[in-house]
Structure prediction request, 531 residues.
Amino acid sequence: MAKYIFVTGGVTSSLGKGIIAASVAKLLQARGFSVTIQKFDPYINVDPGTLNPYEHGECYVTDDGAETDLDLGHYERFLNIPTSQANNVTTGRIYQTVINKEREGAFLGKTVQIIPHITDEIKRRMLLIANTGEYDIVITEIGGTVGDIESLPYIESIRQLRWELGSDNCLTIHLTLVPFLSAAGELKTKPTQHSVKELLSAGIQPDILVCRTEHPLTQAIRRKLSLFCNLAPSAVIEARDAASIYDVPILMLKEKLDLTVISMLRLADRMEPDLKKWKSFLGYMKNPVNEVKIGLVGKYIELQDAYKSILEAFVHAGVANECKVHIISVASEQITKKNVEKTLKQLDGILVAPGFGERGIEGKIHAIEYARENNLPFFGICLGMQCAVVEYARNVLGLKDAASREMDEKTKNPVIDLMEEQKGINQKGGTMRLGAYPCQLTSGTGIAAIYGKKDILERHRHRYEFNNAYLDAFNEGGLSTTGINPESNLVEVVEIPDHKWFVGVQFHPEYKSTVENPHPLFVNFVEACMG
Ligand code: GLN
Prediction:
């Protein structure tokens, strides 16, 4: 039977529950346990696919085509195992399932209520992954902050499960903030005490407190927290601000968080944690011998989280090249034909980001034109690839009015067009072309050399595609289509063979880059930028 670790958060949001959950998982995995993580989000959207990146950061996509919270990206990057639809559940999905069942008559005669019907559905989904029998430990992160109205059904479900599964099989880690008051020169424990009281009033005594802090937790503070929050001093864990999220597992190791978990869950200890690869990654990350400046051209640049997976993929690729990658955010809306040279001149390469809608498109196209003409390494992802196709059509093939149908419905030259299967679709949620699809790379091309193989599987999230009516025109004109979906013939990769590095991909390689498996496209792109 699997053991459960629930991770809740208190005091404020943005404390890094996802990173703490992923770090605990990493340490347990390093000790030989098979671990997975799931996240329950308390909002009413059925999935985060319909959320603006400004609201909730990037939407992460799994192999099986789930549009999920960006924390799942951290889980995959840390654990190096894929997640799935079952790993991310929202309140919207829970209610949708219960209401659908009610309409089918599943509860005929009964009043459908939060307890037990909503909590039963939450518990069913909490146990779902464990029921596959694949995992020794399932870590369940509850989004939001304890005390929010939205979180209550989840907290209640944990309370019930603890009772149903037995306390040896479940534990709760509560992540809180211990703020430093500079006027008093002291760390303050009161917000944590209140947050734990809040949990207690919902029937949950946290087993472990992980305390985010800017300063070391003294023995006195640890004792105080232990006394007032009713847990062992060894269960008070310091989580100091770290330079990188990838330092956190090592900080947690020093705090013996893994050993505390193992003893509380009465797990038989397996082995000393094997973190050789992780530590070597950190070593290279902290001691780069090269530096590059790469422009990230996009429209959501004000918010770091909007391009989370791309930024992390660059960290991994930097390490693989012993190189510090400085990402320079470039607001696509602000790029004009006039200022493009000034904006991009000091960069070693540009990545044109994925996105939706018209805003900033022309700026992206100017940036691509500059990169193409000046032999500046260019990497286009999804919308970035589509913009490269439009740019090439307009400026090389002479199709002046070429556009993507997404931006110009009436264009005479829709070099990027709505996919056939998208034409009848009116519903917005979960209806894009989502998840992993195969792609065949043409032998002897740059992209095939980068991957070192012909058949790849990459993840997607789009409605528009390269218009195959223009296939010959592009190939004859010098923009080669070098990766094709073997079933649908959809163009997945375009490249300019005699450019220093010019690759556009319809898929999202950033979703598959992990600490242990940096993505070859990012690794190779960074190498090209290093010149
Ligand atoms: N908006 C484009 C499409 O739907 C690109 C999507 C993306 O960049 N993820 O095809």
